[in-house]
Write a structure and sequence with these properties.
16% strand, alpha/beta, TIM Barrel, binds magnesium ion, binds D-gluconic acid, three-stranded antiparallel β-sheet
Amino acid sequence: MSGNAGRLSIERIRAIRTAPEGIRLVIVKIETATPGLYGLGCATFTQRPLAVCSAIEDYLDPLLRGADAQRIEDCWHVARLSSYWRDGPVLNNALGGVDMALWDLLGKVAGLPLYQLFGGKLRDRARVYVHAHGRDAREVADAARAWLERGFSAIRCQVGEADAGTYGVGAAGTAAQQAAFDPDRYARAVPELFAHLREELGWEVDLLHDTHERLAPPAAVRLAKELERFGLYFLEDVVAPEDHAWLEHLRRHAAVPLAIGELATRSEDLAKLAAARLVDYLRPHLSDLGGITPARKLAALAEAFGVRTAWHGPGDASPVAHAANLHLDLALSNFGIQEWTPLGDASREVFPGAPTTESGGLVANDQPGLGIDLDETAAARYPYPEDNLNGSWRPVRLADGSVIRP
Ligand code: GCO
Ligand code: MG
């Protein structure tokens, strides 16, 4: 197909469910009339995967069948505007997965890895940050040290308490997460954690923290101030999207680099933060934003304001999403850092060609498109876990029983 500028009809769009690491993933596969020529995308919204599958198979598949897969921009707008009520995480993840698969296809048709279509590599690898957590500062320091020994130099650190969890300590929905969350105790534990980490690990390592919108804005401002002296690489989601108006106030009080964006479904919301210099790193979940198409536009705009990227790369981004993140990382001049969750054997079995790490950074292979495949037979060996909530998170509560953000 190399060099074919002609029409490439979409034959069918499928949503494939698989959970190689027990996390519900949604993979989009766009099939064309040419046997063996297909595109892959990630549409994972792990707490509502079935709703995303329906958006893909019941709506986008019939809508886009027969469309020219090479008209990505047109397909994107047609799909987005095909429901009068638009955007939001369910529809966007579906759209984003389809968009990614169209880009993958384009790369395959061109015979080029996507980073080439994005303007070519600016760097050989994308520096990553990994996650360390523990029940107390000592455990976190041990976990961080283990990453340093493996060649990683940027580490996100989260601390819990022996009896109560917080975001990043214990998987969501586990008993630890269900124990009452104490915001004051958390706000005291975090500066103590970083004091300990600086003492134990020194100042060469880049440390990050995700507050996961757990604190009320005034407490979040205070935490940011207290963390100033530890020289974090960035502090993430210090306030919730609903509270972004607080960022101006926070900026005046704390010189801490801020990262925001994994909850964003509208580029406009993040563009405004970048233009007002209220954020230093934008980190949307690619599919939640609507895919590679809007992400490239947002990154270009952010560059004009000196804001960098740090695309969302947790365990509930599939290896296909990690590959999409990586191709952007390699080609964007305002790339900052990439969140990375190392893949287990099952993921590598289901997704041949998934990105690998080298000296603390992600490297891409030189295969066309995203350079990743999906072994459907292997994928079928890892069905979604059985659980009557289909992936919904259980509530996080304060001691008085009230529900707070996760
Ligand atoms: C991160 C995120 C994730 C999200 C998760 C939601 O910074 O990696 O906060 O861990 O909580 O992706 O499903
Ligand atoms: Mg986060």
